[in-house]
């Protein structure tokens, strides 16, 4: 791709890439590089001088389309939800994508139960955003250059569709977004509590094992002492 210049930091942009850095960071950078090599301007947080919330909203506001890189926890990340809500508010087209290793879980993103009663592999979208799956989800495969180029080409040529919201009667997008954020906080608190309980149980198990180890060492030392006493001269161990 061409070297970064001052113009890359200024609106407008052709694409805004919404993603979870810890899950699809490498994929996002590769996509940024590939799109720029094709002459596009791309807003990607790690390539921007300003990346706070105001800068993110500015990026969505002044882009032609929002590319959504779905990943396991995408729909429980507050800023990812904000970026989708901004796209809806501003009428921006959304192009959903998924890494090839998660292609089999697209249904779960839309709330479908896992196959065979298994535990969920990904976090499903909040109800009001599940219309995202009415838009064709493109696959990005980083394991093969040809497949990758096909995926990038599909993003470039994707039909521009806005995300259809699914709101209950009398529910506004703002209240639905607030509810989704509240549910994220509740899940996070529950996960933190579960992790705390698990850590305490593990610590108790370690204490129990250490106590048993010490008791075993003490018994071994006592048995050794008795053997030494019985075999020592005058210890009663001889005939």
Describe this protein's structure.
- The protein has 239 residues and is of the alpha/beta class.
- Helix 2 runs parallel beside helix 3.
- The mean pLDDT is 90.
- It is built from six helices and five strands, in the order E-H-E-H-E-H-E-H-E-H-H.
- The protein has a five-stranded parallel sheet with strand order 2-1-3-4-5, sandwiched between helices.
- The chain has helices spanning 21-37, 53-61, 78-90, 106-109, 145-156, 173-231; strands spanning 13-18, 42-43, 63-69, 94-99, 138-140.
The secondary-structure class comes to alpha/beta
How much of the residues is beta strand, in percent? 5-15%
The overall strand count is 5
Tell me about the largest β-sheet.
Answer: 5 strands, parallel
Strand order of the largest sheet: 2-1-3-4-5
Unreliable segments of 5+ consecutive residues = none
Order of helices and strands: EHEHEHEHEHH
Q: Mean pLDDT, nearest integer?
A: 90
Q: Distance between the terminal alpha carbons, to the nearest Å?
A: 92 Å
Which shape, going by the Cα principal axes?
Answer: elongated
Q: What is the helix tally?
A: 6
Helix content: 40-55%
Rg result: 28 Å
């Amino acid at each position: 791709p061409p070297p970064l210049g001052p113009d890359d930091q200024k609106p407008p942009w052709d694409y805004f890439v919404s993603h979870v850095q810890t899950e699809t960071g490498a994929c996002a950078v590769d996509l940024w590089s590939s799109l720029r090599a094709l002459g596009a301007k791309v807003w990607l947080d790690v390539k921007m001088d300003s990346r706070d919330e105001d800068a993110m909203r500015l990026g969505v506001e002044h882009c032609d389309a929002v590319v959504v890189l779905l990943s396991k926890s995408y729909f429980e990340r507050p800023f990812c939800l904000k970026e989708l809500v901004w796209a809806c508010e501003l009428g921006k087209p959304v192009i959903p994508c998924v890494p090839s290793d998660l292609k089999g879980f697209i249904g779960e993103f839309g709330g479908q139960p896992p196959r065979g009663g298994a535990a969920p592999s990904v976090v499903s979208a909040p109800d009001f955003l599940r219309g995202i799956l009415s838009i064709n989800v493109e696959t990005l495969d980083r394991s093969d250059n040809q497949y990758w180029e096909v995926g990038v080409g599909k993003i470039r040529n994707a039909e521009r569709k806005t995300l259809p919201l699914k709101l209950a009667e009398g529910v506004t997008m703002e209240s639905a977004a607030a509810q989704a954020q509240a549910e994220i906080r509740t899940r996070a608190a529950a996960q933190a509590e579960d992790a705390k309980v698990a850590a305490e149980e593990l610590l108790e198990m370690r204490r129990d094992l250490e106590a048993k180890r010490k008791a075993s060492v003490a018994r071994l030392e006592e048995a050794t002492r008795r053997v030494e006493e019985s075999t020592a001269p005058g210890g009663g161990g001889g005939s």
